[in-house]
Automatic annotation (TrEMBL):
Probably part of an ABC transporter complex. Responsible for energy coupling to the transport system. This is Energy-coupling factor transport system ATP-binding protein. The lineage of its organism: Bacteria, Bacillati, Bacillota, Clostridia, Eubacteriales. One of its GO terms (cellular component) is ATP-binding cassette (ABC) transporter complex. Its main location: membrane. Belongs to the ABC transporter superfamily. InterPro entries: AAA+_ATPase (IPR003593), ABC_transporter-like_ATP-bd (IPR003439), ABC_transporter-like_CS (IPR017871), ABC_transpr_CbiO/EcfA_su (IPR015856), ECF_ABC_transporter_ATP-bd (IPR050095), P-loop_NTPase (IPR027417).
Amino acid sequence: MMQTIAQINNVTHRYKGAAENSLDGVSLTIKKGETLLLCGASGSGKTSVIRLLNGLIPHYYQGDMTGEVTVNGLEIAKTQLYELAGIVGTVFQNPRSQFFSVDTDGEIVFGPENIGLAPDEIKARKDNISRQMKLDKLLCRSLFELSGGEKQRIACASVAALLPEIILLDEPSSNLDMEAINILHDIICDWKRQGKTIIISEHRLWYLKDIADRDIYMDKGRIVSEWSAEDFAEISEEETRQLGLRPTSINEHYLALLSDNCNAHESRINISDGILFKDFYFSYHRKPYILRRKRFSAADGEDLSLCIPELTIPKGKVTAVIGSNGTGKSTFLRCICGLEKDCTGVIISGGSEYRKRQRIGFSYMVMQDVNHQLFTDSVEKEVLLSMKDKDEKRCLEILDTLGLLRYKDTHPMALSGGQKQRVAIASAIAAGAELLLFDEPTSGLDYAHMKKVGELLRQLADSGSTVLVSTHDPEFIEQCCDLTLRIKNGRAVSLTF
């Protein structure tokens, strides 16, 4: 019989300032060496279970709690967080929240250094983890230069370097491209072979169907259903939709489309009414200048992080910007909306030219890390802030459409990752810009809200807005995108209808 390594007994929890319980009478027994999948809608309680097991509830997140949690024989409420460091490792949904270093190598060895390992052992662990997780191209780099998916891979490596018995993963695939998801799949399989106990909170189910031993479905802070791997594999696509879950299998065409080895060629369809992006050049490695700032141009060649001499996108369409992690998708969007001040480039639309500052008013961007653009103390105020003319009725309609109306008076930072994402999307809709930019808008979203976001983007395009959306999400592309723009090494290599 498998040994019990973690036990949650009748836990009810409510975050400080929240109107509803995050967990309601949750009981769960976890066996040593078991791989457990937590699934359910955003805000259903999955992340709160993760926080129970790593001690962040009750030691970091304040609130009211009843019940008991034990991990590896330790009662969590009476155990300091540092005592759990070598037992439980966590990869958070937003990897930035767990970084302590400024470079990748330092982050990977941070944990082993802090538990006092010998230098030779620290180096051996870094080398082994880097080899297993194929991190050669990410070593000796600044964390600030990495894409969201690359940061997620470093976060996984930093946790693995501690060799914990229990590994907790909160939406680990949310920012990853297809290649990185396959690598993550193999890493989890390797941890499983090593006998690790793995608990995964996840919306994307297709890459885990051959890994999880048990599948736990949560709703409104409760464990509603539980399946063995065999029983879960028998659930139909219709049943998963009814439960608000994403499918357990993906259309092979869209998986292939998102592969970095895809051979799609640029469409020759004539674009009669479009937005022209001209002379978009940018580099993260600017050379010092003495008298005046040097303007980037195509002549800078390989030094450029972004090199798009000319590109036309059709108006009134949803264009998926695809490509591997770190290839320049987010950089392109940031340059369009003016976040990268040194970027050259002109947008031409309807006979008007938009340069630098003018691009800011022409476009509106929802960032990949939405924490950077949440400023107010309530969801309603956040959406009203983006409106040129305050319209409370329209604001409430948008919140209702996105399933956020009941949170209108809630502080945005008290929401789950998926709920924060929807708040940022609500602000983008309310802004009413001609060009709307979305950087991984379905990251961390469940099926129902992914579908709602897709429907909203379609409505925006149908009403005349032009939408550019950076995404790794095959389900989302299939649902709402009209064409795909592939970015590779900062270059626009194909535009496919």
